[in-house]
């Protein structure tokens, strides 16, 4: 990662997009050398014993001999039959103990994974053909992607602003102009390394990466120089107000909804995978923005969603408590629940 750190010494002279591309290239190169795909040691299953492991090793050696045309498939097939019969015997013996040791209260995750394996829900399936609007079946990956792309683009087109949406937009613009930030404000000061470290702690290893190919597993394995390089990039983006192009792009993945026909484009739910490095920058900005809005009381005190120490059930409790005493006071209460158009 020496090259990744050295090119940031004169970071202000180059483009932010170019600098981030070079940083991504250095991280991906280091990841290919140091992070191994998969595990070198095979994980032993639940229904294994030393005898079964020996038979599997013998079959692997016999398979190599067959590939080199040194022997026929007779020994290989006989070993496969022995492995199958032994594994079936082990499953029959260990199944009662496995069910007996399951605790529905503590091991609920294990129970659900076991049920999915038994029903075949966890088994990966081949992608099914999708029928387009013209009635033509898309079978290849490229054709399926084109059909889903057209469907998602049509369903997610931004509609024209309604009257309420326009009023809300004008109110937001007026509020933005009324705010004056001095140099000592938290929204105008430079980022500090502690903010970066706090946002970095929330990286999860089991999260997929975005279009740049950088995953949280790679970020958690970064050295001090590579982390410093990423912090300088985020600080430069904060100071200049420019965002790298890679952070504005997303990789779209379609998942089939449960119980829906696989040949219909409307049966798929799109999931956008954005840059993991961009998510770290978002957490830093969100933390400052939330503190600034709470400090200046810009959030309505009745709002409970997306706030610390508050939740949506607080509104339900407040509503039920107010309605509890209304019959005794001989009063009425009206509640209107609606969604503002244009804010979807």
Describe this structure in a few short sentences:
This protein is mainly alpha-helical and 344 residues long. It is built from 13 helices and four strands.
Task: Explain the layout of strands and helices.
Blueprint: H1 2-6, H2 16-34, H3 50-67, H4 74-101, H5 108-119, E1 130-131, E2 137-138, H6 141-155, H7 163-178, H8 193-200, H9 216-220, H10 224-240, E3 251-256, E4 268-273, H11 276-295, H12 313-324, H13 326-329
Antiparallel strand pairs: 1-2, 3-4
Protein name: Reverse transcriptase domain-containing protein
Pfam family, one: RVT_1
Domain Reverse transcriptase: 260-325
What does the model show?
It contains 13 helices and 4 strands. It is mostly helical and 344 residues long. About 2% of the residues have low confidence.
Any idea what the radius of gyration is? 29 Å
The global form is: extended
Instruction: Quote the beta fraction.
Output: under 5%
Ends distance: 42 Å
Mean pLDDT: 80
Q: Give the strand order of the largest sheet, numbering strands 1, 2, ... along the chain.
A: 1-2
* Helical content class: 40-55%
N-to-C series of helices and strands: HHHHHEEHHHHHEEHHH
Largest sheet geometry: 2 strands, antiparallel
Give the quaternary arrangement of the chains: single chain
Question: Which runs of at least 5 residues are low in confidence (pLDDT < 50)?
Answer: 39-44
Instruction: Give the class from helix and strand content and strand pairing.
Output: mainly alpha
Number of helices: 13
**How many DSSP-defined strands?**
4
């Amino acid at each position: 990662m020496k090259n990744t750190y050295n090119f940031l010494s004169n970071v202000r002279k180059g483009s932010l997009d170019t600098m981030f591309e070079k940083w991504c290239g250095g991280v991906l190169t280091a990841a290919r050398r140091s992070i191994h795909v998969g595990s070198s040691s095979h994980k032993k299953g639940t229904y294994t014993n030393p005898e079964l492991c020996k038979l599997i090793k013998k079959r692997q050696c016999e398979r190599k001999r067959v590939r080199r045309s040194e022997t026929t498939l007779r020994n290989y097939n006989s070993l496969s039959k022995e492995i199958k019969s032994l594994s079936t015997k082990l499953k029959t013996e260990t199944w009662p103990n496995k069910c007996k040791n399951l605790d529905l209260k503590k091991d609920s995750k294990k129970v659900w994974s076991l049920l999915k394996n038994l029903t075949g829900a966890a088994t990966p399936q081949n992608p099914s053909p999708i029928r387009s609007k013209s009635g033509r079946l898309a079978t290849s990956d490229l054709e399926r992607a084109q059909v889903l792309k057209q469907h998602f683009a049509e369903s997610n087109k931004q509609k024209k602003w309604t009257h309420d949406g326009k009023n809300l937009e004008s109110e937001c613009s007026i509020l933005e102009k009324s705010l004056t930030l001095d140099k000592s404000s938290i929204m105008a000061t430079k980022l500090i390394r502690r903010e970066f470290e706090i946002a970095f702690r929330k990286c999860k290893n089991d999260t997929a990466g975005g279009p740049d190919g950088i995953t949280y597993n790679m970020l958690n394995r970064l050295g001090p120089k590579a982390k410093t390089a990423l912090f300088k990039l985020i600080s430069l983006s904060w100071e200049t107000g420019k965002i790298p192009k890679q952070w504005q792009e997303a990789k779209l993945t379609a998942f089939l909804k449960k119980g829906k026909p696989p040949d219909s484009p409307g049966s798929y739910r799109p999931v956008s995978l954005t840059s993991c490095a961009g998510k770290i920058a978002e957490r830093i900005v969100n933390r400052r923005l939330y503190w600034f809005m709470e400090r200046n009381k810009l959030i309505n005190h009745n709002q409970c969603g997306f706030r610390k120490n508050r939740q949506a059930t607080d509104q339900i409790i407040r509503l039920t408590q107010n309605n509890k005493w209304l019959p005794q006071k001989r009063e009425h209460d009206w509640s209107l629940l609606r969604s503002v158009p244009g804010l979807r």
